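Input sequence (229 aa), recorded before submission:
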Amino acid sequence: MALIYIVEDDKSIQEIEMIALKNSNYLVQAFDCAASFYNKLEEIIPDLVLLDIMLPDEDGYKIVRKLRSNPKTRRVPVIMITAKTTEMDMVKGLDDGADDYICKPFSVMELLSRVRALLRRSMEDTPEQIAVGNIMLDNERHTVIADGRSVLLTLKEYELLRYLMLNEDIVLTRESIMRFVWGVDFEGETRTVDMHIKTLRQKLGQCGGQIRTIRGVGYSICKECGEDA
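Predicted structure, token format:
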């Protein structure tokens, strides 16, 4: 399931977008302002952002520029959804780094079509191989190499490792891991995540030390082995 962030201060528009996306089986979280959106980005990077331009604390143009200047978010697809309809407004949004532009009022079918197209395009751009330290994950072959040896993982272990590696050096909460790997909302059951992390570390051998526990928060992966934080 793709995770989509909505940054929109108009509650009625926000609700329309959330209902449409949830009914299409996307995971969705909405924010009324830039500040709360930035706070959530520190926890988990989404697969796509729907972004309003006119926000109470910071305009969408500036938000896009910040996303593109940050190595962790520069590849996140962004669709601007706004009442600004002039050609210059559209050109400015695209020049600042937005991938697409939808004018209000919009058709829900058009919105979903644009979202699907952009997610499909971004998935095609996902690197075939991901390397973090001495761990190499090959998406095309669905294989994992750790310290030069092949590691046999279950589907969930593979998806867990892939999710960690795509978010190198980012602390991922157990909630975000549950949503992406198991496709369900977190309900306080930490044991599922913790047990999979334990077996994944064991299978990775020495490289298992690259997965760090951030006590009270979740997990992250880095290039170097080290003590749990």
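Checked by second reader. DSSP finds eight helices and twelve strands in the chain.
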